[in-house]
């Protein structure tokens, strides 16, 4: 059995969760990066012998549209899939059921689903430092239970009780559009690394608000710290989420 990762992780939190789960299931033989704007996802073909960890962040309780679009191009060919959604300690709402639908349409056979928490990619005061050691222990325990299922008689049974709604909640646009400030040296790293290609390489201080998905990769990777979101918007969002994010939420497994 070959373990494969298919991950959309602009700022690294979702990748860390995927690494914990996949690493506990077996050494990953391949990693497909759904954030790559140039990868040919239609050339990725799996088969029934593969075990695939498909991990995405939850953006406003939904699968990021760009991740869904790229995952839909992959050919699963009946490969077993562990679906993972990662959220910033608020809620993941319809993310897992939407991921189920996208993965199924791409030909994957779902055998387990996991919801996990990582540090909020915009409001870093929430779920700071997660996944932490407690999360790691919990996720590794989930992986052992998934491996036990795969070795048993119900290996191909779909997980039960996965929360979410169909139709999904309405997806909102991103109001958090980072822009470059005067410390920008126009190195172009943000433009090259932007999953949505929303930054003009010739003028990287500018961001196309229609294309930007608010993933914050440019903010997290700018070597000059020149990419920022409006401080007023950050403050307002922090206050709006304070109650929902105040209590530590744990990881969840559906088998």
TrEMBL record:
<dbReference type="Pfam" id="PF00037">
    <property type="entry name" value="Fer4"/>
</dbReference>
<keyword id="KW-0408">Iron</keyword>
<feature type="domain" description="Flavodoxin-like">
    <location>
        <begin position="3"/>
        <end position="147"/>
    </location>
</feature>
<keyword id="KW-0004">4Fe-4S</keyword>
<keyword id="KW-0249">Electron transport</keyword>
<keyword id="KW-0813">Transport</keyword>
<protein>
    <submittedName>
        <fullName>4Fe-4S binding protein</fullName>
    </submittedName>
</protein>
<dbReference type="InterPro" id="IPR017900">
    <property type="entry name" value="4Fe4S_Fe_S_CS"/>
</dbReference>
<dbReference type="InterPro" id="IPR050572">
    <property type="entry name" value="Fe-S_Ferredoxin"/>
</dbReference>
<dbReference type="InterPro" id="IPR017896">
    <property type="entry name" value="4Fe4S_Fe-S-bd"/>
</dbReference>
<dbReference type="InterPro" id="IPR029039">
    <property type="entry name" value="Flavoprotein-like_sf"/>
</dbReference>
<dbReference type="InterPro" id="IPR008254">
    <property type="entry name" value="Flavodoxin/NO_synth"/>
</dbReference>
<feature type="domain" description="4Fe-4S ferredoxin-type">
    <location>
        <begin position="176"/>
        <end position="201"/>
    </location>
</feature>
<keyword id="KW-0677">Repeat</keyword>
<feature type="domain" description="4Fe-4S ferredoxin-type">
    <location>
        <begin position="203"/>
        <end position="232"/>
    </location>
</feature>
<keyword id="KW-0411">Iron-sulfur</keyword>
<keyword id="KW-0479">Metal-binding</keyword>
């Amino acid at each position: 059995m070959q373990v494969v990762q298919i991950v959309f992780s602009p700022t690294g939190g979702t990748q860390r969760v995927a690494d914990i789960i996949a690493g506990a299931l077996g050494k990953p033989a391949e990693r497909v990066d759904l954030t790559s704007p140039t990868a040919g996802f239609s050339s990725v073909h799996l088969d029934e012998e593969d075990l695939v960890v498909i991990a995405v962040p939850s953006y406003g309780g939904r699968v990021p549209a760009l991740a869904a679009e790229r995952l839909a191009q992959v050919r699963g060919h009946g490969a077993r899939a562990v679906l993972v959604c990662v959220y910033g300690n608020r809620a993941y709402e319809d993310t897992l059921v939407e991921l189920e639908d996208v993965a199924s349409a791409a030909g994957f056979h779902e055998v387990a689903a996991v919801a996990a928490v990582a540090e909020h990619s915009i409001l870093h005061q929430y779920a700071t430092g997660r996944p932490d050691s407690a999360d790691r222990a919990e996720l590794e325990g989930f992986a052992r239970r998934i491996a036990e299922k795969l070795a048993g008689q119900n290996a191909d049974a779909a997980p039960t009780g996965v929360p979410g709604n169909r139709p999904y909640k309405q997806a909102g646009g991103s109001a958090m559009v980072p822009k470059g400030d005067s410390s920008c040296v126009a190195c172009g790293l943000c433009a090259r690394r932007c999953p949505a290609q929303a930054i003009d390489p010739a003028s990287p201080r500018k961001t196309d608000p229609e294309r930007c998905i608010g993933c914050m990769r440019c903010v997290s990777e700018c070597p000059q710290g020149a990419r920022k979101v409006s401080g007023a918007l950050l403050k307002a969002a922090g206050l709006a989420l304070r109650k929902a994010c105040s209590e530590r939420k744990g990881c969840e497994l559906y088998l």
